[in-house]
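Quick start: what a row looks like.
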Amino acid sequence: MSATVCSACGKDLSTRQIQSRGTYCSRACAARAREGGLGPEERFWSKVDKSGDCWVWIGSDVNQYGYGRFHTYANSKRVRHLAHRYSLVLSGVELGPKDIVLHECDNPPCVNPSHLKVGDQAANISDAHAKRRLNLDGLSAPTPVVCRECGVTFIGRPGHRYCERHRTWKPRKRAA
């Protein structure tokens, strides 16, 4: 291939693209070349261990709670997905932005679509409480706070005295 054609997709490259990206027309093409030409679905399943009942995410990117993260490219921009959500999308389930994916197996790295179900936050909380992963006993209702700046009553963080509109709230000084 000549230097004026993308090495991954074959599109003609402009002078600016050659100067900024070398032999690729976009980040997506560069990523595709790095991954050996695999599409997103093949890349995703190559990072999953299907040897057990739970299909465990073995990709290198994991968040602080143990859930896998997977990256794709849309319009030359990198998009991050939670691996268990992406697994359900690949299996044909449509997810809205506020839908939550619940693990029936309670194993965060599991991406087996048969272990996952779609729910809302209320279902997630009740599921966690039923499985004794969350203690809701003894919780009290939040205390309303009056903003010192405008006098608006709001439910704020404990120890704060200013509403978010002013963005000037400061933690309460504790008595020594």
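That is the whole record. Residues 100 and 119 are 5 Å apart (CA to CA). The mean pLDDT is 78.
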